Automatic annotation (TrEMBL):
<keyword id="KW-0697">Rotamase</keyword>
<dbReference type="InterPro" id="IPR027304">
    <property type="entry name" value="Trigger_fact/SurA_dom_sf"/>
</dbReference>
<keyword id="KW-0732">Signal</keyword>
<dbReference type="InterPro" id="IPR050280">
    <property type="entry name" value="OMP_Chaperone_SurA"/>
</dbReference>
<feature type="domain" description="PpiC">
    <location>
        <begin position="152"/>
        <end position="254"/>
    </location>
</feature>
<dbReference type="Pfam" id="PF00639">
    <property type="entry name" value="Rotamase"/>
</dbReference>
<protein>
    <recommendedName>
        <fullName>Parvulin-like PPIase</fullName>
    </recommendedName>
</protein>
<dbReference type="GO" id="GO:0003755">
    <property type="term" value="F:peptidyl-prolyl cis-trans isomerase activity"/>
</dbReference>
<dbReference type="InterPro" id="IPR046357">
    <property type="entry name" value="PPIase_dom_sf"/>
</dbReference>
<dbReference type="InterPro" id="IPR000297">
    <property type="entry name" value="PPIase_PpiC"/>
</dbReference>
<keyword id="KW-0413">Isomerase</keyword>
Length: 309
């Protein structure tokens, strides 16, 4: 089992997505303009609504802002859904203008927010892209993957499972325990573990392959499993033990050193790690250098001071 410790996704992916109102706002503010670095020829018009063009970049923006909430996955249907949403935004924005129900102050606040968000996302994307290099990815691989591999081995396990039947009361727990003890008696008398599994185990996935639970690391097993498995010697069978779902018996078939993931197989993930690190470093730097005065905290302190007096 390859090992790759967890990593933080790029900052842009961690930021909260705005709602549909952001798409409408973008349209009202002229989102039909080409995106960063795009020429008009590279940003074709896909529809014209009452004389207002909708560009390919408008659909991309809508997908970026609210795409995560769309249930439609088929590319053609998804594109049609996005186009309808942007079209509706153009039409409804015009209705709002004609009915004089605009709130200029609110629109200004939203415009500032949308501009800041757009600039932030673009900046962080560029920073992430510029940080990714072969040297940086190799360094991340060494520090996070190779140096991060623990000395604890991987375990090749087989298991017997006896489920606790609903409603999981004391009687059901006792019944599962009795099955586990009966299976343990057979194993102790010399019957092959795989034969007992094939006849009585209640895990349909592993039963057909002799209870083979594959190669596992401690972190890939529940605490009860890990605590029992890590103490076994090669070829040894555990005593029955209980978890939340049932009673179990483990057999340790073999062990091997934990193998790190191959560099070429995780290049994309390493690139994401490097980009994320650069983005987070920039955010931390500008925060540290900024003068930020929290007025809400000042007012809170003033109120608490007044109560004391």
């Amino acid at each position: 089992m390859n090992a790759l410790p967890g990593f933080r996704m790029p900052y842009r992916a961690m930021t909260a997505r705005a709602g549909l109102a952001t798409v409408w706002l973008a349209v009202m503010l002229g989102a039909g303009a080409p995106a960063f670095g795009q020429s008009p020829s590279a940003d074709p018009v896909v529809a014209v609504v009452n004389g207002s063009p909708i560009h390919e970049s408008d659909l991309e923006l809508a997908d970026e802002v609210i795409g995560r909430n769309l249930l439609v996955q088929d590319p053609i249907e998804r594109r049609e859904t996005l186009l309808k949403m942007v079209t509706d935004a153009v039409l409804l924005a015009k209705v709002a203008t004609d009915r004089h129900i605009e709130d200029p102050a609110d629109l200004q606040r939203r415009a500032i927010f949308a501009r800041n968000q757009g600039l932030t996302n673009h900046l962080l994307t560029v920073v992430g892209q510029q940080a990714v290099s072969e040297e940086a990815m190799r360094k991340a691989y060494q520090e996070v993957v190779l140096n991060g591999v623990t000395t604890e081995p991987e375990l090749h396990l087989r298991h017997l499972v006896f489920m606790i039947a609903p409603p999981a009361d004391d009687a059901a727990v006792k019944a599962a325990e009795q099955k586990a003890k009966a299976a343990m008696d057979r194993i102790n008398k010399g019957e092959d573990f795989t034969v007992v599994v094939a006849e009585v185990s209640e895990d349909p996935v592993t039963k057909a392959r002799g209870g083979d639970y594959d190669w596992r690391q401690r972190g890939e097993m529940g605490k009860e499993y890990a605590d029992v498995a890590i103490k076994l010697k090669k070829g040894e069978v555990s005593q029955p033990f209980k978890t939340a779902v049932g009673w179990h018996i483990l057999k340790l078939e073999d062990t091997r050193p934990r193998k790190p993931a191959d560099y070429d197989k995780i290049r994309d993930r390493l690139a994401a790690m490097v980009a994320s690190a650069a983005q987070i470093e920039l955010v931390d730097k500008v925060r540290a250098e900024a003068k930020i005065v929290r007025m809400d905290q000042i007012h809170k302190a003033d109120k608490e001071g007044a109560k004391v007096r």
